[in-house]
Write the structure tokens for this entry.
Amino acid sequence: MLLADSAQVADGKLYILGGGWSVTGPDPVPSAVAVKVGVDAHEFNLEHHWELFLEDADGRLVQFETPEGMQSIEVRGDFSATDPIGVPLGTPVDVPIAVNFGPIPLNPGSRFTWRMVIDGESLPGATASFTTRPLSVE
């Protein structure tokens, strides 16, 4: 997982703009989470479900007041991979995922983590943490 200013998937590749940061703000800015999921041959042709959650430093879901009540920032999707043609049998496949967000109003001077869960499991490397700068004191 990689934090970026923006990201997109095209032709099976991740295109990343302003990637690799871990400090942002304090003002809200657009951002993205870019993910490369390795799929082993035994998982080909199976539907996999992913979920992405924004958590605070204590591991609690970050929530915001909306007209429908308190809502957390959660994104979900599905993917599958197939055996690539013309490569040795059993070759793993990378599945790119890009999730873009508009400006998210986060508390300044705080730590946050994006956590991805695939098929109900938190996998190694499936988090990306960042810190918001404190407000300037002048």
Summary: The chain has a mean pLDDT of 94. The longest strand covers residues 121-132. The chain has one domain: 2-132. Residues 2-132 form a domain with the Immunoglobulin-like fold (CATH 2.60.40).
